[in-house]
């Protein structure tokens, strides 16, 4: 049990102190991070903790975690398609495993196992290939078949009756779910304690540069002088990059999700189907958290649609016929910053002092710890860490892509 809970029980009803403070905007910061989601907060935390850089401002136009960090489906895993991706996300899983102890704050990381279903012979071959890539990188991942799938998830239909019968699955035991708000709060609290300034309701409206170097950031609350700016704004990353005259090969698409009414616990694993474009897990409150593919058009809309609801309901019933009377309580949308090779962009840009942590598509939240840690290292040393080198912006002009299109397990 975290020590903070014990202290609260002993103190009775006395209110806890604020998790992070409100500060006036300083005229200058060593580092300005645009985006108050898990990526930006993680980078600030690791800058202070690992690199000793605390003169850092986080600028968030709404409230922290209001973007993709609060709109995702909280799945954590490392069973990716390329060796570069597997190594990268595996470090993130390891950081998540340590997070509750490091923060003395329960982030509710439940490593319940992750199943990526295969409904065709081609999909099954892909799962075998992914399993081999994962195992070569030391990641626990293997192909299993209907009998074991049924044992791990009794309610699922593994018969030959569905339109897409289940032939097998890629089983990834370390995969699971986490409380996304707790991750945001944990990073924010500890970054604040080390001197980082978190500025909510502070919108960036311009970035100044001279002779190819960043010099200042203009916000809705005033001008900040700085020589280092990190763009960690996910779906809005191209808007911010344009302010610095940096062009990013990123297109933003909406991604929708929904939750059902609470049910008694019955789903002990995360289920993903690429053929049906659906993924589902059950929260600690009993809700089924479900998502699908990104919408088939570029947009900044975060509104739900009837087409999404109809599609996901039908596909869920193919997997779990017994859920026909379950009600959907609410749905929402988030923004996905998609790159041509479906891998992120991290590192330097042609403008000195303007670095990016963007292009995450549907993978962003699960990478928050590792991207924050390694981007903090990059900023502090002015060198690209080896783990980030495959994801540099210049790979597109160098024709050295990192193809992860099949790793999302749902259609893009």
Uncertain segments are none
| Number of extended strands | 19
Main sheet: which strands, in order across? Answer: 5-6-4-14-15-16-13-17
Q: Helical percent range?
A: 25-40%
Distance, first to last CA: 40 Å
Chain oligomer state: single chain
Share in β-strands: 15-25%
Radius of gyration: 21 Å
Second-tier CATH architecture of the largest domain: 3-Layer(bba) Sandwich
In CATH, the topology of the largest domain is named: FAD/NAD(P)-binding domain
CATH superfamily of the largest domain: FAD/NAD(P)-binding domain
Q: How would you describe this protein?
A:
With 412 residues, the chain is of the alpha/beta class. It is 28% helix and 23% strand. The chain has 3 domains: 186 residues, FAD/NAD(P)-binding domain (3-Layer(bba) Sandwich), CATH 3.50.50; 60 residues, D-Amino Acid Oxidase, subunit A, domain 2 (D-Amino Acid Oxidase, Chain A, domain 2, 2-Layer Sandwich), CATH 3.30.9; 88 residues, D-Amino Acid Oxidase, Chain A, domain 2 (2-Layer Sandwich). A hairpin with a 2-residue loop joins strand 9 and strand 10. The two termini are 40 Å apart.
Put the structure in a nutshell.
The protein is α/β, with parallel strands linked by helices and 412 residues long. The chain has helices at residues 3-11, 38-51, 83-103, 121-136, 146-152, 180-193, 237-243, 306-319, 368-381, and strands spanning 31-34, 56-59, 75-76, 114-118, 142-144, 168-172, 176-177, 197-199, 204-210, 213-219, 222-225, 229-231, 251-260, 270-273, 278-282, 288-294, 328-338, 345-348, 354-358. The chain folds into three domains: 24-72 and 180-248 and 341-408, FAD/NAD(P)-binding domain, CATH 3.50.50.60; 114-173, 2-Layer Sandwich (D-Amino Acid Oxidase, Chain A, domain 2); 251-338, D-Amino Acid Oxidase, Chain A, domain 2, CATH 3.30.9.
